[in-house]
Design goal:
Elements (H helix, E strand, L loop, with lengths): L1 E4 L2 E8 L4 E8 L4 E3 L8 H7 L4 E3 L9 H8 L2 E5 L13 E3 L4 E2 L3 E5 L8 E5 L4 E4 L23 H15 L6 E4 L9 H11 L2
Parallel strand pairs: 4-5, 5-6, 6-7, 11-12
Antiparallel strand pairs: 1-2, 2-3, 3-4, 8-9, 9-10, 10-11
């Protein structure tokens, strides 16, 4: 566990279904988890740092340990409306729409392209943007990347759609880029995303 910016915690843990480490985030003051797996230090760490109340998912595939955390702490699980169907039978969810303000003053923005429920979460209080699968930074790598082409239905069209969506998000005020797959970029996140989009056009 590391506090990458004041009041913004990050950790990695192995995802049992994909066999790779993924990133999770916690905002203790807001009591908000983003795309969480259980911290390596266990549930006790969350208990000590302020019991979480809300879990925000950047897309429908990122429920990860949401249900275990909901059982432990009674968290509400939030996912964009177009992704609710994927979670049916796993547990109760609260649907949101793009443009909604979520717990913690976080605002949901549409990315789409790679899947209809691909969401970016803007954290104004933390000058951060949390991304799902549209852009990644593999552990041990410095550069941003797309997921492999085989995970896209039409790679060129998908990448073009992602570039358009992220270019629009560059109008937001953020400095940190919180990635679900790979280490976050702490400071200079907007510049890194802008450069990536320019190189990928």
């Amino acid at each position: 566990m590391r506090e990458i910016a004041p009041g913004l915690w990050h950790w990695t843990a192995p995802h049992e279904h994909i066999g790779k480490d993924v990133s999770s985030y916690y905002l203790p003051a807001e009591r908000v988890l983003i795309d969480p797996l259980t911290p390596p230090e266990g549930l006790a760490w969350l208990e000590e740092h302020g019991r979480p109340e809300h879990i925000l998912l950047t897309n429908r595939h990122h429920d990860r340990d949401a249900w275990r955390l909901r059982e432990a702490f009674g968290c509400a699980v939030h996912v964009v409306r177009s992704g609710v169907y994927e979670l049916e039978g796993r547990g109760p969810v609260e649907a949101f729409d793009f443009g909604d303000e979520l717990p913690g003053g976080i605002v949901a923005h549409e990315v789409g392209a790679i899947c209809p429920d691909e969401t970016a979460l803007h954290l104004p209080a933390h000058r951060s943007l949390a991304c799902a699968d549209g852009v990644v930074r593999w552990f041990g790598q410095d550069e941003l990347a797309y997921v492999p082409d085989q995970l896209m239905d039409d790679p060129e069209d998908t990448k073009a759609g992602l570039r358009d969506a992220y270019r629009g998000l560059l109008a937001l005020d953020f400095d940190h880029l919180l990635l679900a797959h790979g280490d976050p970029i702490v400071g200079g996140g907007k510049d890194a995303l802008s450069s990536f989009l320019t190189q990928g056009s």
